[in-house]
Amino acid sequence: MEVIDLRSDTVTVPTEEMRRAMALAEVGDDVYRDDPTVNRLEELAAEKVGKEAALFVPSGTMGNLIAVLTHTRAGDEVVVEQEAHIYYYEVGGMAALGGVQARPLPGVRGALQPGDVENAIRGDNIHFPRTSLVCLENTHNRAGGAVIKPESVAAVAGVAHKHGLAVHLDGARVFNAAVALGVNVKQLTGHVDSIMFCLSKGLAAPVGSLVAGTRDWIEKARKKRKMLGGGMRQAGILAAAGIIALERMVDRLEEDHANARQLAEALASMQGIDLDPSQVETNMVLFSLKNIPADEFVKRLQDRSVLVNSMGPDRVRLVTHKEITSEDIEKALNRIQDALKV
User: Fold this and answer.
1) Which DSSP string do the residues of 252-264 spell out, in sequence order?
2) What's the rounded Cα separation, in Å, for the pair 100 and 76?
3) CB distance 94 to 100 below 8 Å
4) Residue 219 and residue 223: Cα distance in Å, rounded?
5) For residue 139, is the peptide bond before it cis, meaning its omega torsion is within 30 degrees of 0?
6) Sequence-ordered list of residues with C-beta below 8 angstroms from that of 192, at least 6 positions apart, any chain
7) Is the Cα dihedral 212, 45, 324, 271 positive or negative?
8) What is the DSSP secondary-structure string of 260-299?
């Protein structure tokens, strides 16, 4: 039986055009800044998100950590949404390696509220850490791929900047957000001081993310990348795929969103599933199970060659991506219906 992999958009594989570009890439030593393909990718990435400069890094997790290390000093406090990826899924890196602590706040479908952020900023008191950074996430993973709108980003950034804080955007899937809203991605990145976005999810490159910000800030970030072991030498072989990801793969994200809507609308009608399809905005479908523990349901689907992830005792996440067609969705729905039978 054909396997339908809905675990994550990280399972995408590079296109044939990417593979050809990788094979023919002009390379040099990127730590010496001699790799022309990496340099071209970084220039393209900075232009795409409206920043002065960008830095190619091996992963989104490293990119977020580099940003936190560059914006903060040991003993600082970082304001985050309480289920943000940077807080929930990145192995405590900001604490372990940066010596900074997180201040998690509840959001509304992943969006921090300006008043809550302002109330969380520490005053000048000998007992308090310095609040130096606010981290946002767009789209928001644990909120089911929810889109944070430009006005929400601007409002939180306005509060942060008024108090002298920097703002970093975990934009792992920020191009999904821009496509869903029908806006230029710069409308989502213009108010933040730095951004990380991934090439290896919906954009289908095999490896890599970009961190972008001012030219001076990127120079500092480059040193943090080196400290973390992220200097990749002849990385142009990877960057070549990243260039194609940015030039060719953004608009097609709407196909993933359409497939997710198709999936959500059908799932919402199935007995045993609690799902509001109006909350499916991008390529993630998150739902609750009424009668079956999530881990058991995941195992039932695995037995039927459908791969998904649990997100809690009764929650399941499905993610659409380049490898999934509308026909795959129909096959998956039939197998899901079968797996729901108690």
Assistant:
1) THHHHHHHHHHHH
2) 5
3) yes
4) 7
5) yes
6) 136, 153, 157, 167, 168, 169
7) positive
8) HHHHHHHHTTSTTEE--GGG--SSEEEEEESSS-HHHHHH
Nearest CA to 287 out of 303, 266, 259 is that of 266
Tokens 């393909």 locate to 37
Per-residue model confidence as pLDDT tens digits over 260-317: 999 999 999 999 999 999 999 999 999 999 999 999 999 999 999 999 999 999 999 9
Ordered domains of the chain (ranges, CATH): 12-248 (3.40.640.10), 252-339 (3.90.1150.10)
pTM of the model: 0.97
Contacts of 23 (CB under 8 A, 6+ apart): none
pLDDT classification of 342: cutoffs 50, 70, 90: low
Check residue 108 and report its DSSP letter.
B
Q: Is pLDDT above 80 for 224?
A: yes
At 183, list the tokens.
């806006």
Give the pair of three-digit tokens for residue 255: 């196909």
Question: DSSP per residue over 232-246, as a string?
Answer: -SSTHHHHHHHHHHH
* pLDDT tens-place string over residues 55-71: 999 999 999 999 999 99
Model confidence pLDDT, tens digit, residues 149-158: 999 999 999 9
| The two structure tokens encoding residue 140 | 């928001």
